[in-house]
């Protein structure tokens, strides 16, 4: 017969084992990159030039699904110019692979923007590839490419 106390203790033991099992734990670098990716998503929604600029390398190469390529200054200016605003951005099914001082991030982008000129809502459905590079202790976005789905 198992009582509640024994059940609770066994549950805690299994939980502790799961937390310490290295095969299932993300690396510290993967966790750090995941936080930067989420910060980038939030900065895009907020159209925050300071936050976007801080997350990107000075030599950023930012490619849109249209084929247009922007450097850091152009990307930040266009992303925050007020011509449109994001109503939502979801980074669905993300994967992060850290290789030395680089991280390869992929996800399915599902978003909706509203155009300032006419209020038109524009949905986007993309596959995104981001390359992040470690600079000292910080991860910065080095390049981004998008493909329409």
From TrEMBL:
Specify the signal sequence span: 1-25
This protein's UniProt keywords: Signal
Q: Which InterPro entries match?
A: DUF4440, NTF2-like_dom_sf
Per the record, the domain of life is Bacteria
Cite the Pfam families for this sequence. Answer: DUF4440 (PF14534)
Q: Where is the DUF4440 domain positioned along the sequence? A: 34-141
Q: What is this protein called?
A: DUF4440 domain-containing protein
Q: Which organism is it from?
A: Bradyrhizobium nanningense
């Amino acid at each position: 017969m198992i009582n509640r106390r024994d059940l609770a203790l066994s549950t805690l033991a299994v939980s502790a084992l799961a937390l310490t099992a290295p095969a299932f734990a993300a690396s510290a670098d993967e966790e750090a990159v995941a936080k930067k990716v989420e910060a980038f998503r939030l900065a895009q929604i907020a159209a925050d030039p300071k936050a976007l600029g801080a997350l990107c390398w000075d030599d950023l190469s930012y490619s849109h699904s249209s084929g247009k390529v922007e450097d850091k200054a152009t990307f930040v200016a266009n992303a925050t110019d007020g011509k449109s605003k994001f109503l939502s951005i979801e980074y669905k099914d993300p994967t992060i692979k850290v290789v030395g001082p680089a991280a390869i991030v992929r996800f399915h982008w599902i978003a909706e923007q509203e155009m300032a000129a006419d209020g038109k809502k524009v949905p986007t459905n993309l596959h995104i590839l981001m390359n992040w590079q470690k600079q000292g202790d910080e991860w910065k976005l080095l390049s981004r490419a998008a493909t329409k789905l």
